[in-house]
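User: Fold this one for me? It's Glycosyl transferase family 1 domain-containing protein.
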Amino acid sequence: MKVALVHDYIKEYGGAERVLRVLTDLFPKAPIYTAFFVKDSVACKEFSDRKIIESKWGWLIKYWNLYSPLRFLLPSIWRSIDLSEYDLVVTSCSGYLARGFKKGAKTKVIAYCHTPPKFLYGYQTSIDWQKYWPIRVYGTIINHFIRIFDFESAEEVDFWIANSDNVKERIKKFYRKDAEVVYPPIDVKEIFAASENVTKEDYFFIASRLVGGKGLKEAAEAISKLGLRLKIAGEAAGYAKVKKELESIKDNRIELLGRVSDKELYSLYAKARGFIALEKDVDFGMTPVEAMAAGTPTIALDSGGYKETVVDGETGILIKDREKETIRKAIERFNRIKWDKKRLQDNAKKFSKERFKTEMRRFVEERIYADK
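Assistant: Here's what I get for Glycosyl transferase family 1 domain-containing protein.
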């Protein structure tokens, strides 16, 4: 069986790219088709052992972050990719669609959906594109046509997989399609090993790209006001100004670490008192699970996928909003609870990489190979 993988674009290395990395392990001979890839990016280096094929528009949209303002090209970008020679296409799709490519009469398409594009359906995004009226007018017009293409390309998918119950509901709402939930792969074994014999230190931790919509500024301001330490691992992306906002707090107890290696990341998780995750309407949210695997509880916004991973009072604390007073009360409650590392790690096992591979293999065998 001839298989191809599809992904939005290869630039940053976040949760979606970690899923793609495991998909390449499941389909080692499959090339990766994408809208564009940035050659010297962290993500491209992670996939240096795989064949990456970008769209004919890649030469234009990869530079100066043009892929964002030139979203009106999305139908042309994906229609330019011909996958009709493949028996199976597995697309890892989210904000840049990764659907609508040409396929053969017998080609089957499985969509592993991280989320329908948030900018199309009123969800908060990493950039507040509605802030300036010319961009708001421009976006409102082109988004109408992209929504049409998004729905039409969704009709071309044979089988849907959602990364959470939260995203499953979005798929049903916006595409009128049923989906099976397969939670993303977390490398819990490696994190378990990294957290052995680790002594806790007196800081809270956040792992996130420095973009809008993540609640980073709110968390940093609240922690600063309380006189506590906060470490943030992650790099800036796109047009976001979050890094400058965080630097403007001017508190040497707030440390911006930039991008760190997985080894450093797992150590930071393990040594932290607690992890903080305040993204609104998060699709799934891999970082609280990684924190659990390291034996570290999470203070998370009671929203989106966090509600599926964080068990209030057992593996973390769920809060209703990002207000400073709410965060202060959450930390007070956090300090009163005696956290059980084993319980945290047992919960993390439900989201392991091995479980993901088993469920994906079963899905493909039942839906695809059974018909061959």
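One thing worth pointing out: The longest helix spans residues 133-154.
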